[in-house]
Amino acid sequence: MADEAQNVSEYVTLISNDGYKFVVKRSAACVSGALRRMLDPKSNFSEAIENKATLENLNGVVLEKVCEYFYFHEKHKDSKDAPDMDFPPELCLELLMAADYLNSKLLQAPFKSMYSI
Amino acid sequence: MSTEPAELTLPPLPPRTPSSTFIRHKKRSYKHTTSSPCTSSDPALFSSDDHLFSGAENYTGESRRKKRVFLGAWWDRSGGSGGERGIRGKRKLRRVVDSGVWMGSEGTEGGEDEDEDEEGVVVDGGEKDGRNDIVGGRNTNDEGVLVDSTGKPWVAPVEIPDGPLAEAEKIVQRCVEEGNEHVNLSDLLLPHLPATILHPLALLTKNPPTPPTTYHPLTPNLHLFLSHNALRVLPPPLLTLTNLSVLSLRNNKLTTLPDAISRLQNLVELNVAGNRLRWLPWGVVRLVREGKLEVLRVWPNPFLERAGHVGFSRRGVAREGGGADDEGVSRRLHDYRASSRRPWQPTPLASTPPSYLLPTLTPHASSPPPPSLTPPTVTHLSTRTAPNQPPPPPGVTTGPPPLMSLALLTLLRAYGADPSFPTLPSLLPSDSIPQRLMRETVKAGDEGGRQCTVCRREYVIPRTEWIEWWNCVPDGLGMGVPVLRRGCRWSCVV
Q1: N or C, which terminus of chain A has less Cβ within 10 Å?
Q2: Degrees, nearest 5: CA angle B128-B133-B137
């Protein structure tokens, strides 16, 4: 019990396939359904125990933008009139695939409507 | 002597270029005077003294012979001389010379009109020394045949006209040249209308008024008639012609109109009768409400109807042809006009409950299917009875748009005009969600972009969708027309 509580940290580490590490807030990263399930403290995934997720499909440049979006989403979570975030156009195809990957597990989950990223 | 005053009256004509043209014709005929005497007997041909072969002896010899032979009509002589020479292209060439088409048109090279020869091979009769002008890299060989750089006979490139598209292009070009605002492309059975044909219309300017006493804008009020064609979608480049004031798409095969039609802010008259439209885009209502649209013809079309509502059926339109009915219609029209004291404004009549869509374009489990995905066999939709819209399902109603939507929107903004943009979906894994969404993005690009009908933000993936029936047709007797409305997020419902 104490062990579990200790593992629930405020920040998690996301590692890209080329070795870049991004330390982001857990609440922000949990916008993504895939990350939420990976880092769920109730699960016994190694990611949840180590608070560290390695994303083999994303390189550092894309993951940086994804993390940026996590915080953008966190900031505008409750606003009804959130602005659009700008992305470099050349990254958009990869971001599209990344967004699909980060939500893919959620589609099989019961909360389909939470598809948010 | 008498020619000199005539020349004085035409100062801008440069005297040298036409004369050199004539010299070539004269020279060519000079070679063949023995058998084919049918050159022009215009004295101007021989009046030049700046050429090697226009000496006095040539002049007299040729002109005498020509005078004797050439008194008859040239086509009477064609049989004998043509058979003797065996070169039919020659005779055609002569006819062009005699017709005077090329006379006095400065800037035309002597060899240019020969390129128009239908047979493609031009036999040149001139002596090689006197005819060593090379036009466009071509040359003449020893027999006087125009040859290209490889030695083969030079054949004029013939552009094969592409049926109705070529016809349309011709009409558009003529209108642009004449400054004609009425562009009539009707009855051409055009399946589509490429940008190369429509873009010249953007350059069309009116002819200035004569005399130019007052200042008039030369911006045209374009009238574009595309009735009786085979268009299935509105040609996207049409949306850039903001000068359009009349657009007729009557009797085509349109199934949808893009919402971006609201960009044609100067549109006064729109005719979409006789298509396959099941609804109108919200942009049409915006044009009536905020634009200048005054005449809107939408019937007949297989519009969606309200379930349980006795509406304006298509059979009803067909029946309304008799005199008594006409009178009834005009009386109702009069009553209707009299009853509206303030300027007429379109009014909503009914609405279906909104359908909430996931970012993957699938409807939420608890909401009705989106109208745009219903099969064409569905002709009636039930309207909502409660005054307020049903609340969105529990989920995300606030917050920024999903990352996917933002990425797609950025892609569309950055590369939407690129010709290779429609190939992007094929780069993505097949049958995946990104590919499906990318296809939708390409579709949005073809529609000229999408704008939320509630908050007017740009979007790609619709999140809410419903049909509203609007009394939006001026003088439409209060009949409701279905209008498709889409929102960019779940909070965008009315």
Answers
A1: N
A2: 115
CA angle (B273 as vertex; B270, B276 as ends), nearest 5: 120
**Cβ distance of B428 and A93 shorter than 8 Å:** yes
Note whether A91 and B417 are within 8 A (CB): no
Which residue stretches of chain B have pLDDT < 50?
1-3, 17-36, 42-52, 62-70, 79-89, 96-97, 105-137, 160, 311-326, 341
Phi and psi based region of residue B449 (left: phi greater than 0; alpha: psi -120 to 50; beta: remaining): left
CA distance A31 to B255: 39
* Closest chain A C-alpha to B424 CA, distance in angstroms: 9
CA torsion through residues B305, B310, B314, B320, sign: negative
Query: Of A78, A87, A98, which has the smallest distance from its Cβ to B406's Cβ?
Result: A87
Q: Which structural domain, as residue segments, surrounds residue A88?
A: 2-110
Interchain CB contact of B422 with A (< 8 Å)? no
Torsion of CA B203, B207, B212, B216, to 10 degrees: -50
Number of domains in chain A: 1
Residue A63: inside a domain:
yes
Question: Any CB–CB contact under 8 A between B456 and chain A?
Answer: no
A42 within a domain of the structure (yes/no): yes
| A115 within domain boundaries | no
Which residues of chain B make contact with A115, given a CB cutoff of 8 A?
Answer: 358-360, 402
Nearest to B357 by CA among B396, B321, B325: B396
Other CB atoms within 10 A of residue A81 CB: 11
Burial of A20 (0-12, 13-18, 19+ CB in 10 A): middle
Q: Which residue type, as a one-letter code, is found at position B396?
A: V
Cα first-last separation, chain A = 32
d(CA B244, CA B263): 10
Find the helix packing angle between A60-75 and A92-108, rounded to 10°: 70
DSSP 3-state of B458: strand
Residue A116 lies in a domain: no
CATH code (residue A92): 3.30.710.10
Rg over CA atoms, chain A: 14
Is B96 at the interface with chain A, CB within 8 A?
no
Asked if A5 contacts A58 with a C-beta cutoff of 8 angstroms, the reply is: no
Q: How many CB atoms lie within 10 A of CB B53?
A: 16
Taking alpha carbons only, the member of B5, B67, B58 closest to residue B38 is B67
Global model pTM greater than 0.80: no
Give yes or no for B232 touching A (CB within 8 A): no
| ipTM, two decimals | 0.85
Residue-wise pLDDT tens digits, B349-404: 888 888 888 888 888 777 788 888 888 888 788 877 665 566 666 666 677 788 88
Token pair recorded at residue B206: 């009116």
What's the residue count for chain B?
494
Cβ contact B110:B133 at 8 Å = yes
Could you count the other beta carbons within 10 Å of the beta carbon of residue A39?
25
